[in-house]
Amino acid sequence: MRKTFNDELNKLHVRFAELGMMVNEAILRATKAFMNHDKILAESVIEKDPVINNCENDLEKMTLELIALYQPVTEDLRDVITILKASSDIERIGDHAVSISHATVNMKGSQRIAEIEIEIAKMGKYVCQMFQSVLDAYMKKNEERALKIAKDDLFLDEELRKIRKRCVTIMQEDSESVISGSYYSSVAAYLERIGDYVTNVCEWIVFLKKGEIVELNPNTRKY
Amino acid sequence: MKVKAIKIIRAFIIDFIIIISVIYILLSILTTENGTSLKEILGASEGILIVISAVLLAGAEVGYRYIRYRYNKRELDLLSQKLNDITEGKKPGHILLEPSDPLYGISRTINRLENKQHDFTKNFTIQQRGYFSLIEYLTIGVMILDQDRKIYLSNHAMSDLMGREMNLQGQIYINEIRTYDLSRLIEAAFSSQEDQHSEIRLDLTNKVVDAHVVYVPVSKHRLLVMVLLYDITELKEIERMQLDFVGNVSHELKTPITAITGFSETLLQGAMNDKKALPEFLAIIHKESLKLTDLVEDILSLSRIDASPELNLKEINLRIYITELLKTFKPQLEKKKIKVFLEISEDYVVNMDQNKLRHVIDNLIQNAIKYNNFQGKIWIDGSVDETSWNISIRDNGYGIPQDKQERIFERFYRIDTSRSRDSGGTGLGLSVVKEYVAAMNGEIILESQVGVGSKFIIKFPMEQDIQKSQKESL
């Protein structure tokens, strides 16, 4: 009984890791496509999204089955529940990568604002790194690192505020840049949202380790 | 201890009985020969004497046997201790026994065994070291997984290819790999128990690898899965470069030739009598033939650099030099309303080959203008430190995508293949620049982002003349 449960748990773990990898690739590609104005790469991200959604569905099915059939307790239950919760957060990150890709495709041809592009590129790199470290922290169940990553999210909030403000000023001055300006602020918002979801995953890492449901970075989500 | 005592007592009693019975039998034989009966000779005192002597004899015999036993036991202990040491991998000394000793034979065999085992271990260590360092320094990425999907071994090239530390023994591989395609391949090998093979792009390091996943059954419950990654990024690149080169060259040659043939044909068919068309068409033909000349010029200069890398060094005041260069670009600059900011100090003097440097800066400025927006800006900057000096040319034009940044130095490579921006040029400019910079012992660095602009930095060593004269003296 124990052995079969462990096998099932391992399978679940592998599938979850795969979801992480796919979403990681999706945001890497989406931000790269946005920076390089690469429509083809952006489209490939959009095309791959159904695979990510399927993977999440699989994970949901597998976790529910596991709970129903084996009725895990304590640490095992936490393992399963965390995967169930974290996978939906990660899948949402994948959706945001798709939104960024859509923005990349739609922006083609509109007038660009150089200084904002630099800021967004910086933000994109930061988000990619954050997601990679949160995956690492999850795999190694490293709670301290998770807490640290959650703190990093504050930088993204600050960056979003900055980009929004700058975009608005530029749009007020130059009506030509309204289209791109609005896209820039939405892309920055997507990136910031990804940061929030990463924070959520961090919360689940803490739960996995301690069994406490915590709220990291409360009161920062003001729009 | 108790067992030992019982054993001794038992041996003693058996000895005693045997001795008594031997004496009794001897005596009875003697008495029957003499014709006297036993009872006549044996009195009470003789009886006691016989018993006492039997006890003494038995005691002596048991004592002797005990001492022998102790001696043999010590030797056996030594031998077994040695065997234990051998199995534990220690290096015990040889055991030397007298040739007359009953254990002499076995002691020699054990000594020989030890020698043999020692040789085996030595060979094994050498082989293992060789094997591990071979794997470690292989240029192919190698990772070996066991049946629990844990990393058993992973080499340096693997970490390089994956862009993260992979040599984490005992970790589950799925926690460390970040490429979905590769993990799918490995999972497929585990579930189908068959070798897998595919071409995979690694996002983190931007490399293309030929991935082999080999399934190796070891015994009934044990197996190994080997992941072998062969870096084919360069191969792919060369393949593509060759294809592009042929395509680009024929395109570059064909465009002016088509124009020349087309317009001359029209002229010959009667258009030369048309006073308005004649000069116009001739001008076009002339322009296109000039383009061809440019192209041939560029190709020639490319081959010339390879042939003659000599430098004709002169002192150059960079500010004056570049101001002079910029004059030739005046019409182009005015046409696109581009502003140039020359930020080089007036006392900036360097030693360099004027012609080669002109070619380089000329080309870079040309690109900065060509790939810039209307009313764009260009910054030309320079700085010196102890060992090197550099010039940077920055624009706020179109910019170059990350993955194209290495490719723009290829011959005939164009980012915008549609040529919708109609920028002209031969497609050789930057490759000529790169060759010239290399000929001047310098390097060229590019920083760029799409929509933000590009910055080309050319960097040369300070000690140009000394290096050169050394080369000549050799």
TrEMBL record, chain A:
<keyword id="KW-0592">Phosphate transport</keyword>
<feature type="domain" description="PhoU">
    <location>
        <begin position="17"/>
        <end position="102"/>
    </location>
</feature>
<dbReference type="GO" id="GO:0030643">
    <property type="term" value="P:intracellular phosphate ion homeostasis"/>
</dbReference>
<comment type="similarity">
    <text>Belongs to the PhoU family.</text>
</comment>
<dbReference type="InterPro" id="IPR028366">
    <property type="entry name" value="PhoU"/>
</dbReference>
<dbReference type="GO" id="GO:0045936">
    <property type="term" value="P:negative regulation of phosphate metabolic process"/>
</dbReference>
<protein>
    <recommendedName>
        <fullName>Phosphate-specific transport system accessory protein PhoU</fullName>
    </recommendedName>
</protein>
<keyword id="KW-0813">Transport</keyword>
<dbReference type="Pfam" id="PF01895">
    <property type="entry name" value="PhoU"/>
</dbReference>
<feature type="domain" description="PhoU">
    <location>
        <begin position="120"/>
        <end position="205"/>
    </location>
</feature>
<dbReference type="InterPro" id="IPR026022">
    <property type="entry name" value="PhoU_dom"/>
</dbReference>
<dbReference type="GO" id="GO:0005737">
    <property type="term" value="C:cytoplasm"/>
</dbReference>
<dbReference type="GO" id="GO:0006817">
    <property type="term" value="P:phosphate ion transport"/>
</dbReference>
<comment type="subunit">
    <text>Homodimer.</text>
</comment>
<keyword id="KW-0963">Cytoplasm</keyword>
<dbReference type="InterPro" id="IPR038078">
    <property type="entry name" value="PhoU-like_sf"/>
</dbReference>
<comment type="function">
    <text>Plays a role in the regulation of phosphate uptake.</text>
</comment>
